[in-house]
């Protein structure tokens, strides 16, 4: 049983009573009459053959309130796209797959590239962005949930609790961030959030001052969760990063566009586990190492837009402050683990903190060396303004792929 404490400046919606899923879904069915709902699934083809996604689809099959499911499919050739069509055909809800590597969507991407309006990097950010465009284009849903396709502990109550705050017509939330305890197989996970993001935010408060933005970011219990929901109008103006800064970037955009009382976070799962990235101690272009650099740069960029000035000396002070705070957090998490009968390897935790500290300096130097770097994908409002027929072309590409390759 969790407590009811409200921390920070963003509303927290707890799981206080373990309501039956049938009761939640019945309410959501009622809400769906006024606010039709959709699910966005950004997926790699490899996830279709993994242990998590088949169970996710088996669960989603029984969700009664969804009117649309949009799947973004990355790293798939034609045979794999045809396999995906059969794989997802078990879904009774209306659904479509965006074959991002297919010739039709590649041609549309080339048109947007020529206008300087397409994502510059492959990855989840690009996948999510095109799916958001498709949802806007079809206009079938008012409330949309997004979650990853590698959740090993998935059941459909996660989706119900995630979408409920933006689906309930009596609530005024435009955005909801999911959170949960990252505990699995007898140990505490979530190293990047625990050992980088939270201590870095606390260190930034000391070094640059406790700004309202930093207080906002520090209000989220799991800022790197890949699960969030939103109202459709959010999709028009949001500018999301195409790199590993996606989750931080989305939170920053919601801070820029909406008042705090329009945002919330919700407890969506008792247990949560998914595939784990390598720490990549010796490769800052992959794994958690690259993730930590991208996330740190995303925070620096946001603070710079608010008038904060950074120098090499600032980053040195930040690194030292972060390092001390993060080491203190390791002791906190270790004690928490012991009290709950869990394990936590102090040596591995300190190795991660040492790497993150080095990467704060790398991110800072990259920020200083590339002041014009803009990894954000343009908003769909801007794209439509420059290319008014983009939604028609997007729908046409997806529908023609669907018809041509269903077999």
From TrEMBL:
Transferase in keyword set: yes
UniProt key word Transferase: yes
Keywords in alphabetical order: Transferase
GO molecular function terms attached to this record: transferase activity
Protein name: Glycosyl transferase
Upper lineage: Bacteria, Pseudomonadati, Pseudomonadota, Gammaproteobacteria, Alteromonadales
